[in-house]
Amino acid sequence: MVKIQTVTVGVSGASSIDFTSIPQTYTDLKIVASLRSNRSAALGDTPALKFNGSSANFSNRYIFGQGSGTPTSGADADSGLGTMPGPNATASVFGSLEVYIPNYTSANNKSFSTESVMETNATANYMVMMANLWSQTAAITSISIFSQTSSTILQYSTATLYGIKKA
Amino acid sequence: MPATNTYDAIQSYTLTSATNTVTFGSIPQTYTDLVLILNLGSTPSAQLTRLRFNGDTGTNYSDTKLRGNGTTAYSTRISNDSNATLNEFAYASTTLGKCNIIVNFMNYSNTTTYKTFLFRANNADLGTELGAGLWRSTAAISAIEVSNPGNNFLSGSTFSLYGIKAA
Known about the structure:
The structure holds two protein chains of two kinds.
Chain A: E1 2-8, E2 16-19, E3 28-35, E4 44-45, E5 47-51, E6 58-65, E7 72-76, E8 84-85, E9 95-101, E10 110-118, E11 126-134, E12 143-147, E13 158-164
Antiparallel strand pairs in A: 1-13, 2-12, 3-9, 3-13, 4-8, 5-12, 6-7, 6-11, 9-10, 10-11
Chain B: E1 8-14, E2 21-24, E3 33-40, E4 42-43, E5 50-53, E6 61-68, E7 73-81, E8 84-85, E9 99-105, E10 115-123, E11 127-135, E12 144-147, E13 152-153, E14 158-164
């Protein structure tokens, strides 16, 4: 696993974290991110993806837990990636996100795996495990992470893109 | 200085015809952990993906899973099985690229402990699963068999094994 690029959000925040001109020389991609947004008056927000500049043709099924009650399962037709803390979450806490994309250069639809969590030492915390699908056959050449509510991703958020090459 | 590769590619297979079983044999014992990445299609659809280690057909496998099908979340377990089952919802489809499975084997080469592994299985059309597996053997894992009992993985399905070495 080789690091391709790391992005750290600066003092002004960012509308998105972008990885462009992704080398096509690996087999799989992995994204590891630490995120927080300024979604108005919210405990949590939803990070989302664009591949090659588009958030269309995504779908997912997920399991969601919040530290109490029974976990739930649902399905969406969008590029959401689960959860990240918003301004009402415990200060200085950033959520963790991991995305694994096998065969990102293939001519098949792209299935990928996502886990996102926010642990804030409070009563309600969110954990989401997802099966994701991008129903396009194009190779992935760029990836953007953004807030699904169009909120700002805050300073100190980071994301690293790794490439993994098979034998 | 070029970036250091932390996932060493050990073996990989891309099927050129429909195949029931793929075996990684003679796995080097020089790593600390292993990672197995599967990107599958199956004919017919909705079939289980199973693992066996070192050719062991005894009832020495068990696992506990958290599963969601997009409507309901479940937690289930299997004891004393003759193989490890990686998916019960997130099957391989007849369309390539829709099912991905990630398996992490920790401390696979030690000869003192039973072998544990973590797995994620995803198919955004069907469900997502997280599992913890156990192989009740103190033998080092030298071979991993991936099978689709009674059916076949589609041509184009990919199987990749990586090694991770501790510092």
